[in-house]
Amino acid sequence: MSDLLERLRGRGWRMTAQRRVVAEVLNGEHVHLTADEVHARAVAKLPEISRATVYNTLGELVSLGEVLEVTTDKRAKRYDPNAHRPHHHLVCARCGAIRDVHPLGNPLADLPDTERFGFTVSDVEVTYRGLCPDCAGA
Amino acid sequence: MSDLLERLRGRGWRMTAQRRVVAEVLNGEHVHLTADEVHARAVAKLPEISRATVYNTLGELVSLGEVLEVTTDKRAKRYDPNAHRPHHHLVCARCGAIRDVHPLGNPLADLPDTERFGFTVSDVEVTYRGLCPDCAGA
DNA sequence: GCTTGACTTAGACAAAGTCCATTGTAGGAT
DNA sequence: ATCCTACAATGGACTTTGTCTAAGTCAAGC
């Protein structure tokens, strides 16, 4: 965790109480939080922090490649701190629960040149959908 | 196209001018429109149509399986009329252009049981990201 | 041509996110 | 240790996307 703060400082990130709190929130839990949830947890540690700052900071962390933005549903973006090991997501269609998963194979290699239409393809995002045990059982 | 209208009528869909116009807009162009774009095109054909009706109708078409909802970016949902041939999407990270693509293999089979966490996995959505020729060239 | 219940409408509302002018402050310079 | 200043934070207005509701309208069956 201080790894993250160290890395950021090394890249010339100006360290402020707000940024530290946001980074701590993301590192503290291995879940996929919405911006609002990050804000709520940040407020618990630093009551004066504003929504705009949380959005700004999240945006910077994404630009720096420290955090992934995940848009699994139409609602809010979610932020995934597990940016250094490539992985994909499994989402419950009913309750929205998200798990990180590691499929076999390399989906990037599965897109033939004839299907690339001249694009420079750099990334692939796989989202599995289904029902989690709780929602399927009920 | 009248195929679509026929199918819908066969399923007990009450046919109205508004619904016809929305269905025509989706069938008319092989692009991925946002709800607002659908509304704009629908207004061109039927000026009195309201936003709520477009949203309702799109939602019904999705429920009926005639149209796919695609959420490639954080902005608006897009609607893909090409629901009867399974496919995935290639998105330009800069301009947002979308192409339908057909990767090799079956990503659903690439998720081992040990990575399913008890979920009933029913669907998979693959989004390739990169730069389109225009954006990469510039 | 009626009737009826499903459909449509306009506009208020809500949620998620962005923008901007102002105020505050981290960290280097002195 | 103190000062400076560029960068960061604030908060509130604003935008975008989508949902809801009460009242009016109309497609389809009789």
From TrEMBL, chains A, B:
Keyword annotations: DNA-binding, Repressor, Transcription, Transcription regulation, Zinc
Keyword presence, Transcription: yes
Keyword check for rRNA processing: no
CDD domains: Fur_like
Family assignment from sequence similarity: Belongs to the Fur family.
Alphabetical list of PANTHER family matching this protein: HYDROGEN PEROXIDE SENSITIVE REPRESSOR, ZINC UPTAKE REGULATION PROTEIN
Annotated protein name in UniProt: Transcriptional repressor
Record organism: Streptomyces achromogenes
